[in-house]
Fold this protein.
Amino acid sequence: MTYSIFIDGAAGTTGLEIAERLAGRSEFSLIRLDDAQRKDAAHRRGALNSADFVILCLPDAAAVDAVSMIDNDAVRVIDASSAHRVATGWTYGFAELSAAQRAEIAASKRVSNPGCYPTGFLALVAPLVAAGIIPADMRLSLNAVSGYSGGGKELIARFEDDQDIGFRSYGFAMGHKHVPEMQKYSGLSHDPLFAPAVVPVFRGMLVEVPLNFADPIADAALETLLAHYADSKLISVSRGDAGELLLRKSDAATDQMDLQIFASADGRQLRLVASLDNLGKGASGACVQNLNIMAGLDEVAGLRV
């Protein structure tokens, strides 16, 4: 069976990378609109309602508008924006989050793709909260750094025009739009303190969660994460032993994510680190993974593994 796919926002970075992953796959046929048709409401509405699957790669408000234009109950939607990540009636599209999540995605007509930063945070924290290693009422913080492609066309242009930027920290007003999904799907009682930054590499991301306990928990944390991701083809877990972690400008695109636990000798202080491609497992790769699951196909088909 061939499924028709309409990527609304196909000209953006996420949309282009999704199309690359679907190229040459006989299971899917892309519905394409030229520039004039994309700007014509009738053509766009027709594409949104004629596709088997719609993937939204749009700003939040535009994604909400696109969903409102769909009146064909058979159309299934994957939204890459943050508009529906904690919305009622939408399934959170992080298949590895829990034992039940993959089946929920497979059965859903409305799936919200996770944010790139939350993907790393939740991969590290959610299994440890579920196991009781991190208390649900613990107040966590996370420090994260991303390549500039995650900011869309405007930030890409800024970094490519201003070669003097070495580090850009932001989010000082708190209340970042990624925080609600981090809290909801981690099982935490309190919203985490999020400190994001951008560096002059195109792609790549490190998400770090520091932990400080009175008792040693490093071994239990490692064992829990190893067990949780034992069957994953995309997420690996290891005890960190490197003297440093680097984001390189030459890092290849990937849809995998590596989780590492760095611990003090007594196992009380930990630095949990997720390394991922913000355009891969953090965006386009996750969209294609969810699409594969919803279509009943090999979960990692077309992905860079």
